[in-house]
Design a protein that fits this description.
single chain, 287 residues, alpha+beta, Protein Transport Mog1p, Chain A, eight-stranded antiparallel β-sheet, 8 helices, 8 strands, 22% strand, globular, disordered N terminus
Amino acid sequence: MALTPVGGSSFVSELCLIPRYLERTARWALALIVSCSAAQTPRPANGLSRRLSVASAAIGATTVLVSCSGVSSASVMATPCGADENVLLTTSDIGAFTKFLHQKFNVYPDRGNGLVSPPSYVGRFRSGVTIGFINNVALDGKFRADEDRIARSLGYTPGTWPLVPLEGIVVQETSGLLEVYEYTYIFATAADAADWVRNALRLNAADATKTPAGKVDGLTAYTRVLGPNDGRHEAAVSVVGRVGNVALTLAFQGGATVTTSGVSALLRTALDRIRIGCHQSDVRQTN
């Protein structure tokens, strides 16, 4: 699927972070990637051009975080701890899932819009990574057929992966996790990471689509439904915090039983991997 935004230039061929993810979760996706947390953009009633323009803006802001293979790329410099695969979640931690997104980046994803000065921590950003996992039940059979039907109804040609966030009968009939995303941002100091977290919390607090859900293993949690609350759209839990100089966000999406208590064990695994692998001793929300 080669996508062409308004204006005629191509994105990247076989883009694997599908535009519905960027459009329907809109700033949800960007909030996770660049700590920006504006309200979700609803799916337009018609017109592919708006979907593509939204996707184009998101791709620009996130510096094209996905390669066509779904599992990408070597970094041009040494990987700081926190972006190394050895300290990130794996399929063995989650179960019958497939990693379909893995991208490292050495430039802070959001350089601002030129109208305001970026926060000071941006200049001390060292590296980051985005990884995503999808439940294997969504990859074939009746669930994949339903996802592909939905894709076609939106004007997309199904590709290697189903459009995400998932919706339809796979959400109705799967009570647990369907998608998991982990985003880490490594800064020069723990103070920089704490500044990033404070900014992320401020932005999340201003997002009316998210409901504060207290703390989960020391990190601040939010809940929301990724679309109408009709049982066909995923429930989501996101958490924001840091481990030493590693700021991070994790997002857990799926059926009705995706709750803060239900994701606590997997979150703890993710935190322990970074804490032990990077020799960090603290897990804190803001400071």
